[in-house]
Amino acid sequence: NYETGSKQQQITLYGFRDDNNYWEITRTDADEEKFQNSSDPTALQQIKDGDIVRLMHWRTHRRLHSHDERPPVTTNDYQNEVSGYGWEGFKGDSNDHWRVQILEGDSSVPESKTKLMAIYSKFRLVHVNQRCALFSNRKKLPKWGHEQVEVTCMKSAKFPKTLWRIETNQNERTPVNAPLAEYANPGLIAKVLEATRVMWRVNNGLTKSHPYESRPTTWPWMRRGMAFWGSSDRGIYLIGTPILWWTSFVAIVAFVGIQAVLFLRDCRGMHDRLLGVRERYFESVGFLTAGWVLHWIPFFLMGRQLFLHHYLPALWLAVCAMIGSLDLFTRRMSRKVRQILMAVLLLLV
Question: Smallest Cα–Cα separation from 132: which of 99, 106, 93?
Fold first, then answer.
């Protein structure tokens, strides 16, 4: 049960399957009385857009319920708590009534836009009394809720976070010739796009603070490392080799500065050859610098936790740029001098 609000049974979301996922969709008492007087009171009835239904949790026999109580985590005035209320044999009340609004269907199955169908229909559940929609924004409950995802009923909620879909549908009275719904088999591009969307969403969801987190502006200078493991008298701490990190970043900055100077001098009619390596320098080190930018800049768009190890792919490209610069600008020196320079650099690293 919730530890706040109504203290009724929790309604949550989580990322794996078990028997707690099943709900029985039933009529309201008024509709049940009308249907009992029909010619075939035992027949299944198709749920249509606009119908009012009740959902009963099949294991605990408690109905999906909402009322004017604030949720445990999202305590805004326009959010209502969603709970499981009742017991086996209890008839419930009007706070268990939800209106089905079908918003999307599968284009290959036109009926799914007017009749509730598993997999194909995306629908909202709007609370009849409170006029709020069943909603989830991926906020997690505290430890007493096993850190599962909070479910609320939100007034004037945006559509994407109030869309639901039936994944599995079972009924002993389902006709033998009933149509079967199934997921479309995605192609390669669809799989890649879906995986990218999921990775982006999960990464952006890591917003809690961490004692070893750092921002991209500090990575090239290696202002902060991070602890991987520790005990009372020893630990493993990630920290880079300063000479390698700093000189590689200097090589990137030097390339940008040199290109800017060359551009300005070209505008004045002075076409420098840069010791005869200008084209090679632009093509090789320029390529590596562009790669460094593409592996570093995107992290500025992320609001999630970031750590020093996120810089490692960009660091690899910066090191290659540094070695490429050193190779090009020492090529006119003697072999012995170049060997001494490389040996000194290796020793410093």
Answer: 99
> DSSP code of 15?
S
Residue 194 has which token pair? 């879906």
Question: What's the confidence (pLDDT) of residue 295?
Answer: 96
Beta strands per DSSP E along 105-218: 122-127, 133-135, 149-150, 152-154
Query: Does the predicted TM-score (pTM) go above 0.70?
Result: no
159 contacts 103 by C-beta, under 8 angstroms: yes
User: How far, in Å, CA of 338 to CA of 108, rounded?
Assistant: 69
Render pLDDT for 233-266 as a digit per residue (tens, 0 to 9). Answer: 898 998 889 999 999 999 999 999 999 999 999 8
The C-alpha atoms of residue 129 and residue 98 are separated, in whole angstroms, by 9
Question: 252 and 311 in contact (C-beta within 8 Å)?
Answer: no
Among candidate residues 12, 8, 17, 3, the one with its CA nearest the CA of residue 149: 12
What is the pLDDT, as a whole number, of residue 187?
93
d(CA 89, CA 183): 36
What are the Cα distances from residue 49, in Å, to 15, 53, 103, 122? 28, 11, 9, 11
- Over range 73-92, report the average pLDDT: 89
| pLDDT tier at 228, thresholds 50, 70, 90 | confident
**β-bridge pairing 79-85 and 98-104:** unpaired
d(CA 210, CA 141): 19
